[in-house]
Amino acid sequence: MTEEIVPTAAAEVAAAGFCRVALGLEYRGARYHGFQRQNPRVPSIQAALESALSKVAGGVPLSVVCAGRTDALVHASGQVVHFDTPIERTMHAWTMGANMNLPADISVTWAREMPAHFHARFSAKARRYRYVIYNDPIRPAHMAQEVTWNHRPLDIERMRQAARALVGCHDFSAFRASQCQARSPIKTIHHLQLIQHGHLIVLDIRANAFLHHMVRNIAGVLMTIGAGERPVEWGQEVLESRQRRKGGVTAHPYGLYLVQVDYPEEFELPQRYLGPHFLSGLPDCRQG
Questions:
Q1: Residues with active-site annotation
Q2: Radius of gyration of the chain (CA)
Q3: Among 152, 203, 224, 239, which residue carries the largest CB count within 10 Å?
Q4: 88-101 tens-digit pLDDT
């Protein structure tokens, strides 16, 4: 019986005439109109990244595909992208070369050569976001665009009780933006936790996929309940209504971070701490 030879990632892409590279990415989204490339006059994360990578490739145009297209003003500490290129560079060169040509609010954190069947978006099993709330009567002078300020005292226990009703597989139409293009509103939330550290409240949510504005709409409902403006049961009532107009306001984008994308173990992607970086020293926010 002949032993089966499993091709390496390098051999697989070499046979196809290109190299597929995955990158880890973090960025501050405050001055960008989202990840996706748009009008050349509108700044986007994708346009800035592709420009930097093309310089590393000696002027050869490159196009990237991301795990999740974050909206305007939204941040990331665990975004994953991939691109195909016929240009040979070391992974160190892709990482450091891109960072030399990127603006200060975008960083490539790692690079890894991948097999041709890896896809940053379609290979992903789950995505994880964190929504960071600064809860204090006085607006913050520091990090004002990295956290969402809520001046009303929030009862985190009420928010936790309401969050339990959202965990699991549900129709999340009530938490879906009108312009959402997802084929189905049915998603599975694997966990929805609320962590408090001083004046910070971190909403940590992991799901198989998300609808447009889903996290921000959930945050809006939970903050309303935490402020005592609605009963705990209102969260489940909104969910069961399947009507967006029942769900109140959409929370601000400033405190929202894409922090992790999960892939099958076969791809062996590098793992970093769960971001954003200013939470990395807090015991309850290091993992989970």
A1: 71
A2: 20
A3: 203
A4: 999 999 999 999 99
